[in-house]
Write a structure and sequence with these properties.
Glycine cleavage system transcriptional repressor, Alpha-Beta Plaits, repressor, cytoplasm, 167 residues, transcription, ACT_dom
């Protein structure tokens, strides 16, 4: 029976390293169900959801560490508990930037026990406005009993000029 785990890896970007990790996974009989790779300057971070036969999990994890000693790996078993009564909603949040804004958005969602599936935040200086604008794109797992409108209302409270939309 296949088992799923999440691998988090960080390190300095080297050509072909992600492809080499994917090949190692395939050679061990596993597959990446999904992956995200982020690059910043000379660094990268990757998150891979891996499925592989249960008796090969430890071997593959050891192979990652052994064959890529310059990288830092973390392994977590996948939780099997997912509510059947949830849906994924996507929100855009735009407002003037200020310190603590990202933390406040995460706190609002955490207080509702919502799972943030993806969050991308950007800050851009707009010279014509003379200020920095904050923009976030969120994917959130939401129980059926919580409306998207109620989440929008709470997120709009982070700033007087906040504009939140459901996409």
């Amino acid at each position: 029976m296949n088992k799923m785990f999440v691998t988090t890896v960080t390190g300095i970007v080297t050509p072909g390293v992600v492809k080499a990790m994917a090949n190692l996974t395939r050679e061990a009989g596993g597959e990446w169900l999904s992956s995200k790779v982020i690059k910043m300057d000379a660094w990268f971070a990757a998150l891979m959801k891996v499925a592989i036969a249960g008796d090969k999990v430890a071997s593959l994890q050891a192979d990652f560490v052994q064959q890529f000693p310059e990288l830092v790996f973390s392994f977590s078993d996948m939780a099997e508990v997912l509510s059947e009564h949830t849906r994924s909603l996507r929100f855009n949040v735009d407002c003037s930037d200020r310190p603590g804004l990202t933390r406040e958005i995460v706190d609002i969602l955490s207080n509702l026990d919502l799972e943030v599936e993806q969050m991308e935040c950007n800050r851009v200086h707009v010279s014509t406005l003379g200020q920095t604008v904050f923009s976030a794109k969120l994917a959130v797992s939401v129980p059926d009993e919580i409306s998207g409108d109620s989440i929008i209302e709470l997120l709009e409270n982070v700033s007087q000029d906040a504009r939140v939309s459901l996409t």
